[in-house]
Amino acid sequence: MLALNRIHATRIVATPSALDSAQWPDDRLVFRIAADEALITPPMANAVVSDPYAIVVADSGFAGAWLPMEEALPLLEHACEWELPRERPAFAQGSVAGIPAKLWIEKDRVLLIVPAPFVADFEERMA
Amino acid sequence: MRLIVDGQPIEFDAGDSALIAMLRAGIHPTGGGCLCLGGDCPHCLATVDGVSYTRTCETPARPGMIVERHPREGYPPLPLNNPAAAEEVKARNVHCDVAVIGAGDSGKAAAEEAERSGKRVITLDAKRGQEVVGVYPGPLVVARTPDGMLHVHPREEIIIATGAAEIQPVAPGNDLAGIVTARAASQLAAVGVPLGRVVAVGARPENAEATVADGQLIRFEGNGKVEAVIVRGADGNEKRIECDTVSVGLGLSPRDVLLRMGSGLAIRAVGNAAREPELPACPTSGVVCSCSGVTADDLQRVWDSGFRELELVKRATLAGTGPCQGSVCVPHIRSFLKERGGELQAPFTARPANRQPTLGEVAAGAHHRATPRTALDAEHRRLGARMDRIGGWWRPWNYGDTRAEYWAVREAVSIGDVSTLGKMIVSGPDALELLERLYPTQVSTIAPGRSRYVLLLDERGYVLDDGLICCDGASRYGLTFTSGGSSFAEMWVRDWAETWNLDVRILNQTMSLGAINVTGPLSKELLARAGFTRPMRHMEHTMATVAGVECRIFRLSFTGELSFELHHPAEQSAELWRSLMALGTDLGIKPHGIQTLLQLRLEKGHVIVGQDTDFDSTPRRIDMEWAVRLDKADFVGRQAVLRTNKAPLDKQLVGLEMDAPAPVEGAVIWRGSEYAGYVTSSAQSHALGKAVMLGWVKLFDGVLPTELTIDGRAARRVSLPFYDKEGRRARA
Asked: Is A41 exposed, middle or buried (0-12, 13-18, 19+ CB in 10 A)?
């Protein structure tokens, strides 16, 4: 049974160039969820980007779960109409089981992320 | 081994299809019509194990299978209590470059050629149990398999290699039983189905004894079952040949239904599916389309009515709109139109599905729109809330005692979950410029730490949404929107920012932040117990810790009472909610649901955009011109507001009151015997002891009527708000 937990993250909205040039610590996962937005987990206490107007906030609005690849692929085959990227690691976004989702795909595992308000529906649909 | 047909067990042999089993027993699945045994015609359709429109020629017989023949007139009954149709069916998605449908010689060759050029190929073959039911834009090929539905997503191309179908006869009596195509006759003979005396019209069957009837097919004769076939010989004379079975070999037509379904997609046919059809003789009599019961006479009628194009003939007669999607009738209708008009027209498009899927199969892989839940969802359910979908979210409608909820707000303290409100941050050197252009208020006069209620208008000056602008500094603002309007509002703000090429950053925090409304005369006391004692003016906002949770606190009021909205990280919502409930026990705290909130705000005359407003609601019509600064240089909708303000006011959203009971929302408002408008919000006010309403009322000769009738009872237009007209309680 898939069980998602809230993801503690830092969310940054800044100019694309500021995000492009930012240096992120190696121990964080940094997802570029839009040209002007990054989601960093675990959160960074002092995230800095070269944009004085950047919006930098702590965020727990997403929930996620790591799944081993052998469990994730059959689930996604049923729930995901779009083709997963073939390179590893890869970040992808799109509808999964009808819910806006983000996927961080590593060699042996996948991190499934959805907005926390959709967790109940997502878990039910992926069961 | 036996299966059941219309309640009677019949024997079948190993390897039989349901159709062959029925034919062995002398049963025609639909009572009559030429059988093809190739899945092309509709003449073997029956209800199998509760699933109607099943092609029995492609359905392997099994012991206990229940076959019910469709009625000859009308339709099979809806499967209302059919567990098979209600079963959940899974869908599996597979991706490729090229999808090949059909694994015969041409299909194999096409697949190999594509693979040689490095393409990823998926071949679907009905003989392997992969029955394609439709080709859709995407492109998407949907196939039924023993393991559920297969959704194939080819990037580049769909190749149809489905071969050719036999042309069926159109002549009087072609709806009799005992008529089969030449291929079907061969198959039946091969499996030992007794055919009796066989007469072959056209090409003869390969391995069945048959008398060849030379000449042009004129008609079939018989009573339910064919007894003779009439042909006209080269000498011009008709010849009657008695028989038990007629084998018809009139040539081949491409099996192109999937190709015709993929119109506009990267799709092509190969092999026999791409062949030129052997055009049959122009039909003069008999059934052309047995799916829709269209005869040659019907074709003539629509021709005489002026329909000349194949697509229009299809629409006028409904030929080709049934289960086989023109597999049988297309060659004949093309022949008819060529004979009449002299031009061979392209076949008409086909529509999914090519094989009739169950509702479960149609729904496989599809999901209804998910409804988000706030971080307090479990709290509401634990408290016994009746949950409902409101404003696009699951929200508590009430907690069982709306009167207690109401009085807790009016006389004590109450908390409500308003996490669903749209919440956005706009930052950047052009943030103020963006908001000045978007909103009809003077944004520059909102001081840091202050908030203002605002309307959001579209270019036509109609109200799109409402909410707050909260100033956090010269280049940073917080915006709120209604629960139901926040997704659209985000698109609206982003779209305009991009259109105007403004330098702003936008973050939607709706799903990240929880929000709890603390409301009631004792709300300040409750917050003091939770550690927040800083004085706040009405429409002020500040950051502070409440019960250990960092909050942005807004002082505002939707209920008409002293209120504070606590925006906070959603993950701490439950913690904050429980703390407030515990701290307020002796203050009489109760949670309130949406039902109570709607009543409270109605007593204050607060409008709910989307409920009280309509698609053409201007600020003037909702009597909120005070929220629009027309002396601003410009904003979205300004020109339209200026223009519409010059027109006479024709209707207005007004306050109405009457004796109990409160009429239903939507009730018609009358002025005497004249229609005057309708009620948009209605509730029985506990505090005021009467029904209070908002409603649209027409002006009569430029005047809003005061005395009205609703539900046959007297109602009166009154000024808003109904409750606490001076606003002392909210500003206490």
From this structure: buried
Contacts of B91 in chain A (CB under 8 A): 78
Domain boundary among B85, B120, B155: B85
Give residues with Cβ within 8 angstroms of B282, minimum separation 6: B335, B336, B338, B339
Contact B507 A55 (CB under 8 A): yes
Cβ–Cβ below 8 Å for B425 and A80? no
Q: Tell me whether residues B370 and A36 touch, CB distance under 8 A.
A: no
Strand B541-546 relative to strand B513-519, pairing = unpaired
**A100 to chain B, minimum CA–CA distance in Å?**
10
Q: Which residues, other chains included, contact B237 with Cβ-Cβ below 8 Å and sequence gap of 6+?
A: none
Picking from A78, A98, A121, the nearest residue to B92 by CB comes out as A78
Name the residue range of residue B211's domain. 169-249
Give phi and psi for B570, each to the nearest 5. -60, -30
* CATH number of the domain where residue B15 is located: 3.10.20.440
pLDDT (tens digit, 0 to 9) for every residue of chain A, 127 residues total? Answer: 799 999 999 999 999 999 999 999 999 999 999 999 999 999 998 888 999 999 999 999 999 999 999 999 999 999 999 999 999 999 999 999 999 999 999 999 999 999 999 999 999 999 8
Helix (H) or strand (E) holding B320: none
Residue B421 within a domain:
no
A34 touches chain B (CB under 8 A): no
- What amino acid is encoded at B400 in this protein? G
Domain assignment present for B504: no
Per the structure block, which two tokens stand in for B358? 């169950």
Interchain contact, B428 vs A53, CB within 8 Å: yes
Minimal C-alpha gap between B277 and chain A (Å): 37
Cβ pair A81:B569 closer than 8 A: no
Chain-chain contact of B511 with A61 (C-beta, under 8 angstroms) = yes
Chains A–B, number of C-beta pairs less than 8 Å apart: 93
Q: Are B9 and B23 in contact (CB under 8 A)?
A: no
Last residue of a domain, one of B224, B249, B274: B249
Is the pTM of the predicted complex or chain greater than 0.80?
Answer: yes
Beta-bridge mates of residue B604: none
